[in-house]
């Protein structure tokens, strides 16, 4: 299913390293292991075969099937499914949500990582756990939380429905009314921001911790203001790690299904994102169309994967020493 | 720039990192802060720089109270232990940083900054490496870039945290001589932190020896070595033999030998127990001293270290430093006479 492509991307990376370390390169003859510390040849081949078989069956095959199914009705039907107005609206909405979410989480992520990595304070562990919360909480639960707060029976509903009259000292009477959140764009953005929050922060924290704050202190001692130190020293030092986090965050934002599904209301042409649109088409037995739209998500995942691999290859040393993603 | 430090206190939780520090750093001198790890020497340096706040006390820069000044306002050149070079900037950009971040009227035109960078590059003998990145330099070169970067802002004081800590022994020796020369050239008041007594004694005009957040002694290297002010200084600066002795009137009895007091009155009030400290090289072979038997000998480069057991008193062992050719003359088991030519005495523990 398309919504899982975000997960697939991570799966590929998680499987890569063991495959690399197990690759035998010894010229020795017979079943003797290459070195005293490595396994016998047949064990090596068995493990490699198992890993490759797993990769093929669970990652490559589904991806190929997505494309095959999408093109079953011919290229005309494929293009028609993508050019259909509801599909175009879903593409636009997904891009818009991603374009709002990523910059927000960029700012939040850098601020959170900077706070946690460069400062010591009470409650730091609790804050780190809170940052990790979206990883632990089911996205559906996250979506339900927003319904509970902003929905028709939620705490904040009066604020949205009627607004409140405030009398402020200088401004006089002010009418405060929130826009509609649930079943509208703000809700979808909120849910996506929540789910993708840890990606950038988590990427930057180990990197910034490892770099320490000596360079910033050096900048201050040379007369730089705190702001100059941040722009000229801190930010350039984390730029590749930041790009990496942005990439993961963007991929997840585009593919997010659970939380968005709860808050979106599935209004065709208005609150349907790409993953939701795929699901609707699929439930309506429009398989070709569903798979055609799914290829867009699959393609975005592939682009992410390529960029990510390039980043790791080209700037691996300036990314965090340990990767959890 | 003269720096005065008055009654400085600093605690980390219950641990007193700096405990009532008073220190006057003379204009243009090269001062070493010497001490074991945890003695507070780096904390003191960072408080002078303004990188950390003191809990109490004052710091005066040239008579003017600098305690409330921010690190930027203090205009100190600080060289970090691991240099903290900006890794994404070239050597030239690193050196220019302090000039480029200036704003308003203080800002120099680009040509003047470039000229200053060139001048500093030649001062630290890295003329051709301006376009390199820190990762492409050796340890010694990075050290010199860090120095040039600190000097670029024309600091009032130069502060160096373990300047040679991360370098090979050979590079250390070269850089040491070079730093001394640079100090003479610039005439800047310079303070450096080190745990290496050899480095402090060789390089500095004066040495402040720190232990547990206190200054145990402030003296020239020769004084610190020849007349240590406390048992700690004796054992931290150079090697020393500690011998248990006792007061006998205004003289000291130790290992069956009665010695006159080192200089001035005997310390320790009424305590009868005294500890006598003698350096291995301050014991000479000869008559009229302790009778001892050679236990073993260990060759260490140009020196011979001999362990010998005193025959009088409680049979304590001492270490003696002798010329290398003494090895044949005094095999293990042979008798030697040891005369202490210089020693110190402190109240017994």
TrEMBL record, chain A:
InterPro entries: CysW_permease (IPR011866), MetI-like (IPR000515), MetI-like_sf (IPR035906), Sulph_transpt2 (IPR005667). Keywords: Membrane, Sulfate transport, Transmembrane, Transmembrane helix, Transport. The chain crosses the membrane at residues 42-68, 89-116, 136-160, 181-201, 242-265, 285-307. One of its GO terms (molecular function) is ABC-type sulfate transporter activity. Pfam families: BPD_transp_1 (PF00528). It is a multi-pass membrane protein. The keyword Transit peptide does not apply. Residues 91-308 form the ABC transmembrane type-1 domain. It is found in: Cell membrane. GO terms for cellular component: plasma membrane. Its main location: membrane. SUPFAM superfamilies: MetI-like. The keyword Transmembrane helix applies. The complex is composed of two ATP-binding proteins (CysA), two transmembrane proteins (CysT and CysW) and a solute-binding protein (CysP). Part of the ABC transporter complex CysAWTP (TC 3.A.1.6.1) involved in sulfate/thiosulfate import. Probably responsible for the translocation of the substrate across the membrane. This is Sulfate transport system permease protein. It comes from Pseudoxanthomonas taiwanensis J19.
UniProtKB/TrEMBL annotation, chain B:
CDD domains: ABC_CysA_sulfate_importer (cd03296). One of its GO terms (molecular function) is ATP hydrolysis activity. One of its GO terms (biological process) is quaternary ammonium group transport. The keyword ATP-binding applies. The keyword Membrane applies. GO terms for cellular component: ATP-binding cassette (ABC) transporter complex. Signal peptide: none annotated. Keywords: ATP-binding, Cell membrane, Membrane, Nucleotide-binding, Sulfate transport, Translocase, Transport. It comes from the Bacteria. Residues 3-237 form the ABC transporter domain. PANTHER family: SPERMIDINE/PUTRESCINE IMPORT ATP-BINDING PROTEIN POTA, SPERMIDINE_PUTRESCINE IMPORT ATP-BINDING PROTEIN POTA. This is Sulfate transport system ATP-binding protein. It comes from Pseudoxanthomonas taiwanensis J19.
């Amino acid at each position: 299913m398309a919504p899982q492509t975000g997960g697939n991307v991570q799966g590929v990376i998680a499987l890569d390293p063991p495959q690399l370390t197990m690759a035998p390169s010894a010229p020795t003859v017979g079943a003797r292991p290459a070195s005293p510390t490595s396994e016998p040849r047949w064990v090596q081949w068995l493990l490699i075969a198992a890993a490759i078989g797993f990769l093929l069956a669970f990652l490559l095959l589904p991806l190929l099937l997505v494309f095959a199914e999408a093109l079953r009705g011919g290229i005309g039907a494929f293009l028609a499914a993508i050019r259909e107005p509801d599909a175009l609206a879903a593409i636009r909405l997904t891009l818009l949500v991603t374009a709002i979410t990523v910059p927000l989480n960029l700012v939040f992520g850098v601020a959170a990582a900077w706070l946690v990595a460069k400062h010591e304070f009470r409650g730091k562990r609790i804050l780190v756990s809170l940052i990790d919360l979206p990883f632990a909480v089911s996205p559906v639960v996250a979506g339900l939380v927003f319904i509970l707060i902003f929905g028709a029976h939620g705490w904040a509903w009066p604020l949205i429905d009627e607004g409140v009259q405030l009398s402020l000292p200088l401004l006089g009477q002010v009418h405060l009314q929130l826009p509609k959140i649930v079943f509208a764009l703000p809700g979808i953005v909120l849910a996506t921001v929540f789910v993708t929050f840890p990606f950038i922060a988590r990427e930057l924290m180990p990197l910034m911790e490892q770099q320490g704050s000596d360079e910033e202190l050096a900048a201050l001692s040379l007369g730089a203001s705190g702001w100059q130190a941040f722009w000229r020293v801190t930010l350039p030092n984390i730029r590749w790690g930041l790009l990496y986090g942005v990439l993961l965050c963007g991929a997840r934002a585009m593919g997010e299904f659970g939380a968005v599904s709860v808050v979106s209301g599935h209004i065709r042409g208005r609150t349907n994102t790409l993953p939701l649109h795929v699901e609707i088409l699929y439930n309506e037995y429009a398989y070709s169309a569903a798979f055609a739209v799914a290829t867009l998500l699959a393609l975005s995942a592939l682009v992410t994967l390529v960029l990510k691999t390039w980043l790791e290859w080209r700037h691996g040393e300036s990314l965090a020493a340990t990767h959890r993603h | 720039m003269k720096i005065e430090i008055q009654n400085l206190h600093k605690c980390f939780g219950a641990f007193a990192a700096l405990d009532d520090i008073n220190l006057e750093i003379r204009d243009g001198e090269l001062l070493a802060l010497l001490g074991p790890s945890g003695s507070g020497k780096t904390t003191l340096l960072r408080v002078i720089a303004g990188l950390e706040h003191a809990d109490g006390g004052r710091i005066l820069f040239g008579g003017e109270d600098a305690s409330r000044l921010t690190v930027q306002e203090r205009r100190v050149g600080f060289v970090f232990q691991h240099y903290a070079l900006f890794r994404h900037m070239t050597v030239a950009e690193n050196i220019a940083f302090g000039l480029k971040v200036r704003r308003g009227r203080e800002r120099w035109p680009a040509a003047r900054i470039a000229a200053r960078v060139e001048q500093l590059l030649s001062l630290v003998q890295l003329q051709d490496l301006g376009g390199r990145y820190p990762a492409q330099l050796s340890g010694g070169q990075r050290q010199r870039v860090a120095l040039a970067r600190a000097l670029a802002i024309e600091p009032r004081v130069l502060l160096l945290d373990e300047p040679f800590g991360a370098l090979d022994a050979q590079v250390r020796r070269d850089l040491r001589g070079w730093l001394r020369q640079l100090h003479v050239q610039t005439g800047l008041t310079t303070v450096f932190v080190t745990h290496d007594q050899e480095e402090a004694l060789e390089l500095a005009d004066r040495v402040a020896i720190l232990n547990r957040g206190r200054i145990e002694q402030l003296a020239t290297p020769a004084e610190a070595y020849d007349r240590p002010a406390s048992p700690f200084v004796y054992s931290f600066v150079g090697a020393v033999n500690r011998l248990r002795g006792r007061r006998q009137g205004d003289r000291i009895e130790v290992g069956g030998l009665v010695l006159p007091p080192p200089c001035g009155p005997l310390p320790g009030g009424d305590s009868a127990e005294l500890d006598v400290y003698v350096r291995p090289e301050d014991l000479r072979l000869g008559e009229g001293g302790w009778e001892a038997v050679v236990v073993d000998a260990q060759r260490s480069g140009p020196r011979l270290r001999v362990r010998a057991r005193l025959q009088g008193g409680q049979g304590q062992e001492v270490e003696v430093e002798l010329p290398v050719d003494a090895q044949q003359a005094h095999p293990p088991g042979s008798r030697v006479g040891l005369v202490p030519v210089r020693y110190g005495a402190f109240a017994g523990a």
